[in-house]
Design goal:
The chain is an alpha+beta fold and about 550 residues long. About 30% of the residues lie in helices and about 35% in strands. The relative contact order is 0.11. Its main location: membrane.
């Protein structure tokens, strides 16, 4: 008690000596807590609670001496000032509502059925986003989803434009559901996962053999020492703690922490997806070889978080566009040689891109996505060269076909005649005479002339156009980091968190344990470990470690 009084500062209450007085002091498990109680017959019952440096005095009036008074008992609460001069704590009646309200909200958000419903709602919205065409003009939805012929009897353009389903992944409905799911994950982490980890980290000794035998697995070792068991468990990767005859050991604590990492990874993925949907820029452009465009003229914002950067002033010049072909003649790959030019007119980067090999600079990315033909360069009767614009022609299927026309009669005539040229790609050009009859095929750059209706023609070059898609996506690094954490923590979460208790009872060791996973393998592992515990040769009771 002297050592205890040296660690705790107590303010004593002095009472006058009266008959039948009773005083006692109770010390709690924590050295910082104590209770002083004074009882007097015909006086008052005084309770003083000390918690650290804070003192609270409770006084309850009792009946008079020898219980002759019929005064009804009543309770008076007195807030005593803190010995260190700190103000008294806030009364419970005023703080209960403030403390209770967040707990109720956390309880609702951490509800598992609610979280499942939120995930199903997100899945339904994403499915709807793949069904409804995204990013089209309002006139498209007026025509595709008219009010006089609604889809499923009710779904019209009003639903799409009012709820923002034309930009589903940045719509308030989608983002609101995503935020609600994120709040549920954080509430579950705070109310369930973190407390589980705190409990798992505590050293919880069991001092009763009956309590140990009630565990999922239990056994006894006659003529054994709990210290020898601790050494065996340490060799198997357990953290071992001894206190007198009691032992506590655990391993696989990371398996308890991993679910928190899984929740964090999901939050990162959702945050990155939200930033990508509401804070990115996108655009596409088709540029003939030899021409330029400005990045900022192509990119358009996708949401309310989109913020342009200085790199949007970069100018892109298409130096050359080329193609590779399969042996069958089909296009296999196409390339764009691009130069990036800053505001000072200096080339800051030059790179050749192709499908699946984009260019990245200043926060934006340029992808090679498409191609077309823009012009044919020809010589006519050794005159020229002339650039003839190629126009796409409508044909069945996904095949491309481009055509142009070279007039050979008076251009002011109402009956204009000339030579037609068709091209599927940059490999060969098919020529037709004035009557539309096949005249021949020439390859660009072959310099081989062909004479049609008395006109000599040389096809010099087929000039292509590159189809580029530009995008800024600041959420991509966050999404990648989230998936990396998710894969790692998912694997770690499969680790079993195993706990073992043991008690030295004479020469017998009582062992019990449990695990949260691999419950079928745990008894086999325990039997294997217990078989390694040496048997005591001396029949005397083994020496136990003092607490």
């Amino acid at each position: 008690m002297n050592a205890l009084n040296a660690r705790i500062l107590l303010s004593k209450i002095q009472l006058q000596n009266r008959r039948n007085d009773l005083k006692f002091r109770s010390q709690f498990s924590s050295l910082r807590n104590s209770l002083l109680c004074s009882v007097k017959n015909g006086g008052t019952l005084t309770l003083t609670l000390y918690h650290g440096s804070r003192k609270t005095v409770f006084s309850e009036l009792r009946t008079s001496e020898n219980k002759k008074s019929s005064q009804a008992p009543r309770t008076i609460k007195i807030e005593a000032p803190d010995p260190a001069g700190a103000p008294p704590p806030i009364k419970k009646g005023r703080s209960w509502k403030l403390k209770g309200f967040p707990k109720k909200v956390l309880s609702i958000l951490s509800n598992l059925p609610l979280a499942i419903a939120e995930m199903f709602a997100l899945a339904a919205l994403m499915a709807l986003g793949t069904f409804v065409e995204q990013g089209e003009a309002p006139s498209f939805y007026f025509q595709k989803y008219p009010e006089d012929n609604p889809v499923l009897g009710f779904f019209t353009w009003r639903w799409i434009l009012t709820l923002g389903f034309d930009h589903m992944f940045s719509s308030p409905v989608f983002l609101g559901t995503l935020i609600l799911l994120g709040a549920s994950l954080m509430a579950c982490t705070y109310t369930t996962q973190i407390p589980l980890v705190k409990v798992a980290r505590r050293w919880s000794f069991l001092h009763s053999a009956d309590s140990i035998r009630k565990q999922e697995y239990s056994d006894t070792l006659p003529n054994a020492s709990v210290q020898d068991l601790g050494v065996i468990l340490m060799g198997a990767g357990y953290e071992v703690f001894l206190k007198g005859p009691s032992l506590y050991a655990f391993r696989g604590l990371a398996g308890r922490v991993a679910p928190i990492g899984v929740h964090l990874a999901l939050l990162l993925i959702m945050a990155g997806g939200t930033i990508s949907a509401a804070g990115s820029f996108r655009g596409s452009v088709t540029v003939p070889q030899g021409l330029n465009f400005v990045v900022g003229d192509v990119l358009g914002p996708s949401g309310f978080l989109s913020t342009p950067s200085e790199s949007f002033n970069t100018e892109v010049h298409v130096n050359r566009f080329s193609m590779d072909y399969y042996e069958s003649g089909e296009v296999s790959q196409f390339y764009s040689d691009l130069s990036l030019i800053d505001l000072n007119g200096e080339e800051v980067m030059r790179e050749t891109i192709s499908v699946n090999h984009p260019l990245r600079y200043g926060g934006f990315t340029i992808y090679q996505t498409d191609w077309s033909l823009s012009a044919l360069q020809v010589m006519k009767d050794d005159e020229g060269p002339f650039n003839l614009a190629l126009a796409p022609l409508q044909i069945n299927g996904d095949k491309k076909l481009y055509g142009t026309f070279l007039p050979i009669s008076d251009t002011d005539s109402t009956n204009l005649k000339g030579i037609s040229m068709l091209a599927r790609d940059m490999q060969s050009i098919v020529l037709y005479d004035q009557e539309g009859k096949f005249a021949g095929v020439r390859r660009p750059n072959s310099k081989l002339p062909i004479e049609i209706d008395g006109v000599k023609i040389v096809v010099l070059e087929a000039i292509g156009s590159t189809g580029l898609e530009l995008k800024t996506d600041p959420g991509v690094p966050i999404v990648y980091a989230g998936f990396g954490v998710l894969m790692l923590t998912t694997c770690i979460s499969f680790l079993s968190h195993s706990q073992i208790w043991a008690l030295q009872d004479g020469t017998t060791v009582v062992i019990g344990g449990k695990t949260n996973r691999a419950k079928g393998e745990f008894p086999e592992d325990m039997n294997y470990l217990l078989d390694q515990v040496p048997e005591l040769v001396d029949s005397k009771q083994p020496r136990s470690i003092s607490g």
